[in-house]
Specification:
Elements: E1 4-7, H1 13-22, E2 27-30, H2 34-42, E3 46-47, H3 51-57, E4 60-63, H4 68-76, E5 90-93, H5 99-111, E6 115-118, E7 121-122, H6 124-130, E8 133-138, H7 141-154, E9 155-162, H8 166-194, H9 199-207, H10 214-224, H11 234-250, H12 256-271, H13 280-288
Parallel strand pairs: 1-2, 1-4, 2-3, 4-5, 5-6, 8-9
Antiparallel strand pairs: 7-8
Length: 298
Amino acid sequence: MERIGFIGLGTMGLPMVKNLLKAGFSVRVVSRSRGPIDTAISLGATEALHPQDLAEQVDILLTCLPLPASIEDVYFGEHGILSADLTGKLVIDHSTVSPLLNKRCYEAIQAKGGSYMDAPISGGPMGAEAATLAIMCGGGADDYARALPVFEAMGKSLFHIGEIGNGSIVKLMNNYVIGVNTAALAEVFCLATKAGVDTDLMQQVLAASTGDSKMLHRIVPLVHQRDFAARFSNELLYKDMKIAGELAQAYEIDMPVHKVAEEMYRITKENYPKEDMAALFKVYEEKTGVVVKGNSEK
């Protein structure tokens, strides 16, 4: 088996490392926080000093980072990945960032003798734990074939989308759709609450009708329970919505629905940055003067 490096042991990265170890891979890690590193070590991983040190000791290096600034630091900063000799190495980024940043990383890594793929992920912490992630990959066919055993240890729905950056484009469109879907759910559940409709029953009706969606099943139960602990934070979703809007501008595509949703997530990010995207409901609740609660919370 190829030696695997992993940078970024957050709510997604740490369970991904656990599944790589379960699959029998040798894994070395780097992360900002001590706690996740200690957990990974207890499961059988080893620690490297910094990204450069890690890159020099592995064959395939995975990164899963929250923000474009994190990519800049880990890839291009002091003791970053690009400080290492990358001859023959494959670097794969699971972060959700701009395809332009993907292409910049690709060109820099290729110049150092390595290969690169963008491979953003979807499925949330539960999917990361269960190794059922959707992984959407941009890059060469040979690199995808080389990475496939690694992807199979972490995900269930694997897609090779084509050239560098295409994985990120598809992931940004996915997050745009879930953002708009959640905004629509917030509107209709606030309206139903104000009109006196039992929203537990409305959730059941939508789930049995053409209004069903994955976000209905993910978001509404959390709102009914008033549980806004971050599975996917507003800070991160707003970042993705903003990048999606920039992508639309670059391709001269008008997306009026996106503009409204992005503004609502900007407000939500300002008020509830570290809470789950379900906290968008709280913004609508504050505008409408109602609180959406399930029967057990009323």
